[in-house]
């Protein structure tokens, strides 16, 4: 089998479809290289002294794990000097990170969740990195948070790395979704799945059921109907999976279908759901739509949401098209 590397894929995409200019290619390659470095740390575990928590909390008041901070540093350092970026933003940093003046500035902006699935780090379960790429607004001076306030539909690229039994990179630049597997000996990303497609129908759902008593009526109704199985209104048995790493749950859905949900609930109205629009919902929505799936906040398409703050949270329903349509329609009734 002829092996196609990430670099070759990116160069040929540009040649054939003109969708990946050189600066964007450099950006994607630098992010991919960072993910390799993160994968290396993740793989070391206790031997690399990377497990466990720090004293610090991030801006959302969550305890930071060592690997949250290590991964954030790896991405920042790798992406600062290449000249492809104007600024970065991260789930783990309160404010945006403009490119320091000693380096040239580029026209892209990078957002990331450096380490997704933090609660799984110390128990050796799949975790990941999620990233999203926006264009800097025309004529932008010193970058500000306002420059990042762009709807998900403006993303020019998005992807995630999943650190599991294999390390994989899943990428979209708006022309389908492709998956690369890390060849650990060679240190290279090899194209292993082209044009991933999420089946429109599914019998598998993913939600944290322990929050059931807090759900709003449409979510409660939808899940009750799934749980009722073949004797209920859906007339079929559904299966459930919940990894508690969004990357791992989305990766399963990309491969065999399913619906993933993290709804808002009645506990705290100032916190609409748990997941973050800019670092989690938007990039995953872009990938899922590019694979033929759908992604809504229950009412509207996630990628149509006009963001109002960097760390904004949003309810998420994504995956197989037909199921996302059902649960979204219940929110409209
Ligand atoms: P992060 O580790 O980046 O904070 O994200 C964790 C997210 C997401 O990956 C996962 O789907 C969800 O939190 C799990 O939440 P519960 O612990 O409530 O199940
Ligand atoms: Mn996350
Ligand atoms: Mn995270």
TrEMBL record:
- Residue stretches spanning the membrane: none
Q: E.C. number, please?
A: 3.1.3.11
DNA repair is among the record's keywords: no
Q: In which pathway does it act?
A: Carbohydrate biosynthesis
Positions bound to Mg(2+) 1: 91, 113, 115
Q: Which cofactor does it need?
A: Mg(2+)
Which domain of life does the UniProt lineage start with?
A: Bacteria
What InterPro entries does the record tag this protein with?
FBPase_C_dom, FBPase_class-1, FBPase_N, FBPtase
Fructose-1-6-bisphosphatase class 1 C-terminal domain boundaries: 198-331
Q: For binding Mg(2+) 2, which residues are annotated in this chain's numbering? A: 113, 116, 280
Record-listed substrate binding positions: 116-119, 208, 274
What residue stretches are annotated with the Fructose-1-6-bisphosphatase class I N-terminal domain?
A: 5-193
CDD domains with a match to the protein in the record: FBPase
Textual note on the cofactor: Binds 2 magnesium ions per subunit.
Enzyme category, top tier: hydrolase
Name any one GO molecular function: fructose 1,6-bisphosphate 1-phosphatase activity
Q: Can you state the subunit structure given in the record?
A: Homotetramer.
Q: Which family does it belong to?
A: Belongs to the FBPase class 1 family.
Q: What is this protein called?
A: Fructose-1,6-bisphosphatase class 1
Question: What is the organism of origin for this protein?
Answer: Pseudoduganella namucuonensis
Gene behind the chain = fbp
